Amino acid sequence: MYIATTNEIRNRLIESLMAINDLEYLKALEGIVKSSNIGRSKIPLTEEQKNMLAMSDEDINNGRVIDQETLNKKELEGLVKR
What we know:
This protein has four helices and no strands. The chain is an all-alpha fold.
């Protein structure tokens, strides 16, 4: 039986959260997180997470960014082409 690690579960949750567009749903999730002990303790980042943050910083510093509206249009175009 496969047992997922904490990091694997966390990464899957992050991926799922990034796909949610329902504001009320996100507010409800935020309320759950705020009412828990999350954030009261420091969670060490993995090397992979540190690398992802460094890559994000590099993208921002080099202007490799896209606004949400443009991203949504491109995603929709990609879905239509399938």
